[in-house]
Design a protein that fits this description.
Radius of gyration: 14 Å
Strand order of the largest sheet: 1-2
Distance between the termini: 39 Å
Oligomer: single chain
Order of helices and strands: HHEHE
Largest sheet: 2 strands, parallel
Structural class: alpha+beta
């Protein structure tokens, strides 16, 4: 079937431009802003448009150094993108 598309707004255009410039420079991105504004969906949509698999991790207090190490190892081995949601919440 037809995949759902993200609504194009000036904000998503700016996020796409910023993230693709970071990728071109061999860097990553960390969109930030209020909850419910579409940051995770924007990253997932960009990954889909670039043909990349993205894994979304909902971070909580159970994440420790060993867990993060295993996640990064897996991301490096597969070439997938990692999206760490709720990363800065207490």
């Amino acid at each position: 079937g037809v995949a759902e598309r993200l609504v194009q707004t000036p904000l998503t255009d700016r996020a796409y431009l910023t993230l693709t410039q970071a990728l071109y420079s061999r860097m990553g991105g960390s969109p930030f802003g209020p909850a419910g504004t579409g940051k995770t969906e924007t990253v997932k949509a960009l990954a889909g448009q670039l043909g990349r698999f993205v894994l979304v991790f909902n971070c909580d207090e159970a994440f420790d150094l060993q867990a993060m190490g295993r996640i990064f190892l897996g991301l490096c081995q597969t070439g997938a993108w990692g999206c760490f949601d709720e990363f800065n919440r207490p």
